[in-house]
Amino acid sequence: MTALAYRIDRSSRASRIGSSVLIALGLILATVPQFFVATVVQQLTSLFIFVILAVMWNALAGYGGLVSVGQQAFIGFGAYGTVFLAQRDVPPYLAVLIAAGASAVLAAVLAPLVLRLRGGPFAVGTWVVAETLALLVVLDHSLGGGTGVSLRGLNVFRPDERRAYTYWLALAFLVLLLGAVFVLLRSRTGAGLQAIRDDEEAAASLGVRVWPMKAGLYVLAGFGGGAAGALILANTLFIEPRSIFGVQWTAYMLFMVLVGGIGTFEGPLLGALLFFGVQYFFADYDAWYLIGLGLTAGAFALFLPRGLWSLVPVRLLPVGYHLRRDGPGFDRPR
User: Fold this and answer.
1) pLDDT in tens, 163-217
2) Does the keyword Cell membrane apply (predicted)?
3) Alpha-carbon distances, residue 294 vs 276, 278, 280, 308, 328 (angstroms)
4) Residues of the chain by 3-state class (helix, strand, coil), percent to 5
5) CA distances from 301 to 67, 172, 259, 262 (A)
């Protein structure tokens, strides 16, 4: 009788190649403003923002089991925080950084309240927080009230300089947040979060520190949402409460993560690329466009719940733990 040995794989040849390709792609993307026209730079900035949103929502729901429909609270807070600071003569790009950090602080303050809830009540609670923040902004006339407000201060830059600086800042945030999720998934905390997602009580019984891990993940997602909101403002120069605090952001994140592959590192990247293409061609259809997004996400949830990336038989990056059995008849990692 042949004894079977078990081992844990952290990487494979495909994931090492994928990591190298991703690093090379990041270096190439850093040169885009030097060689491409303004439209390309601005569109790629929008794509980076979508990827940030998808990666953060996937970290929250896909790894932590925290299905939020109120992450637009941090998107709006980051955007209006940038406006608030710029109105007090803080340089606008510094204001973007501070507003993203302030969004993380807001998430830390809200965590003891919203993380007391689970499942549906948690989702509703996060949505209520977003609506409350939107109402507070509408009541503040110094922030433009319900009519919206423009970001002052960026007019000191030439348009091509402003687009390039915003692009590089979006790319830097994207690399930072992808790196944070990558490190998280390769740590014991990442394994603990996935245990919490699968069964919170069982994870706690095994010694997993449930509340600190959930709170840390919620703060990370708040930081990412705030950064995305501030970047949306820097990219468009104008916001209004109904759009920046709108629940459509949750629909976008759901679509990207469910279609790409929830609970995978690569799936949200694929989903963001697909959503970017869908929005480019169909965004003019207004309500029908949002209905189409919702129906597509629902169809994936029913018939392909792990998304398109589940159809790809390789790991692009060395994340997570993979238990394998050695012996005749068992595949080697690809």
Assistant:
1) 999 999 999 999 999 999 998 888 888 888 888 888 888 888 888 888 899 999 9
2) yes
3) 15, 13, 17, 16, 45
4) 75, 5, 25
5) 14, 32, 8, 10
